[in-house]
Model the fold of this input.
Amino acid sequence: MAAQNRVTPGGEIVALDQRGLFMGNRGCIHRRVGEIARPWQVRRWITCRLEYKGWVAPKWEPNRWTPLFFWDEAVALAAGHRPCALCRRPDFDRWCDAWESAFGERQRVDPMDRRMHDDRVDATRAQRHHLLAWADVPDGAFALVDGVPSLVLGDRVVPWSPAGYGPSHDRPTAGDAVVMTPACTVAVLRHGYEPVVHP
Done:
């Protein structure tokens, strides 16, 4: 039976029988093995490699951060995470370059994480969505298409499900998209950051 440690593009932590490409964390958010007690502990939501220099994160250890898993980096970004500065240093540097290009300032991680937290959740602790013209949604962002989280890639949208990505469809050419990926992350994508997408 799958553990409750997979993250959806909507930011929910669920039990899925899914093997993804990335791990990450939001602090210590479990009480005991397999039981998530809260959606986050800290504002620093990061995306990590599954293994780093031979080290693999222990799972469900008491009073330690809770490893979470993502289908790919595009899902992690939609959920509100960013690259880890330790195990993914080159990606983190590319992220910071794109952030500086988007906002005119190279931020330290604390103010960046505060901005990201404000953009990813609303006052009810639900994922914050925003409207953007379909033509302005960058590759690598997620939007809702008929209520289904869908990855934007060029002129296509690719629906996500617990089984992974499904067959792609034409990207709408008119109107506004309901974008799931946080607004600041959308700006980073628009300024050159390219997330890893599951093949």
